[in-house]
Structures are given as C-alpha cells and as structure tokens.
C-alpha cells in the first residue's frame, strides 16, 4: 500500500470510528445519559494555548472563543491519531483484512487517555475520582471507547468493501 493510500485509509477509518462513537453518544443523550460536552474540550484547548494545563473545574473556567469548534476538531484529530496508532501496532495488513479483537482491545485501552490525562486536566481527577459517581463515569467511558474500537473495525471493513468494489 502506498504512503498516500495508507494515509487516506487511516483518515477514513479514524473519521468513521469517531463518527460511530458520536452516534453512540447521541443515543446515550437521547436516553437521558450525560455525555462529554466538546465545548469543554475546546475550552481546555484554548486555555492550553495560554499555558494552563489543569483546572479545578473546566466548566467554571472562562469560556474561549470558538471552544465548541476547537473541541470537535480535537475530538476528530484524536480519532485520527488513534486510528494511526492502531495501524502502527497491528500493521497495515490489518487495514486490508480487519480483525475485530485488535481494534476492540485498542479502543478499550485508549480509555486510559481520558481517565488519566483529560479528566485530571478538567478537574475531575484520575479515573473520575472527583465526580459524584466515579465508577459509573469510568464504565461509561470504557463502553464509549469500546464502541470506538468497534467503529475502527467497522470502518476498516466498510473501507475494504468499497476498495474491493472498486477493484472488482
């Protein structure tokens, strides 16, 4: 696979997987379950550009111009980075013949980023320890990242079907 074809495949798989995750969180919201507000991610990014990494409570920090757009941009950029990491670990052959378990395992392991980096930076503590329901928050994050992992697999399967349809 050429470098440009590999990069384009990773781009499509990362966007697809992030979109699957977004559909999952939309379902959760419709069920009345609180999910991450990407404006808070953008607020954090805005403050990060100003040199502030951690907050006591990101929701109480001063708002930042364009925070919702920044939040969504970082959300999708993270999905692309995670897709690239999966392909780097599993090999580009995984894109040509996707297998569920590496993607699902990667998705589940990727939950360590929000639990150990993002939540503490937002003021929620490691593993959501400063939230009213830490275990529930952790399990919700774990499920969401599991869905992301499934989305990586599903996106690679769809891409393979499209690729096969174009060459067949």
Sum up the structure in keywords:
mainly alpha; 168 residues; 7 helices; 73% helix
Topology:
Elements lengths: L2 H28 L7 H12 L17 H24 L2 H4 L3 H10 L2 H11 L11 H34 L1
How many strands appear in the DSSP assignment? 0
Distance between the termini: 17 Å
Form type: globular
Describe the sheet with the most strands: none
Q: Which segments are poorly predicted (pLDDT under 50) over 5 or more consecutive residues?
A: none
Number of helices: 7
Helix content: over 70%
Indicate the mean pLDDT. 94
Tell me the domain tally.
Answer: 1
Helix-strand makeup class: mainly alpha
Radius of gyration: 17 Å
What can you see in these coordinates?
The protein is mostly helical and 168 residues long. The protein has one domain (3-167). 73% of the residues lie in helices and 0% in strands. It contains seven helices and no strands. It has helices spanning 3-30, 38-49, 67-90, 93-96, 100-109, 112-122, 134-167. The radius of gyration is 17 Å and the shape is globular. InterPro entries: DUF2938. This is DUF2938 domain-containing protein.
Quick structural summary:
The protein is mainly alpha-helical and 168 residues long.
């Amino acid at each position: 696979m050429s470098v440009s074809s590999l990069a384009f495949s990773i781009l499509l798989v990362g966007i697809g997987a992030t979109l699957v995750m977004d559909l999952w969180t939309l379902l959760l919201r419709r069920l009345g379950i609180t999910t991450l507000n990407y404006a808070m991610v953008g607020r954090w990014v805005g403050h990060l550009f100003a040199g502030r990494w951690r907050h006591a409570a990101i929701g109480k920090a001063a708002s930042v111009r364009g925070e919702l757009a920044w939040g969504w941009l970082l959300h999708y950029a993270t999905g692309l980075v995670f897709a690239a990491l999966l392909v780097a670990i599993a090999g580009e052959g995984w894109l040509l013949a996707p297998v569920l378990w590496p993607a699902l395992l990667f998705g589940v392991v990727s939950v360590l980023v929000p639990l150990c980096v993002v939540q503490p930076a937002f003021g929620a503590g490691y593993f959501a320890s400063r939230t009213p329901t830490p275990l529930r928050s952790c399990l919700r994050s774990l499920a969401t990242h599991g869905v992301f992992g499934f989305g990586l697999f599903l996106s690679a399967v769809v891409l393979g079907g499209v690729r096969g349809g174009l060459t067949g």
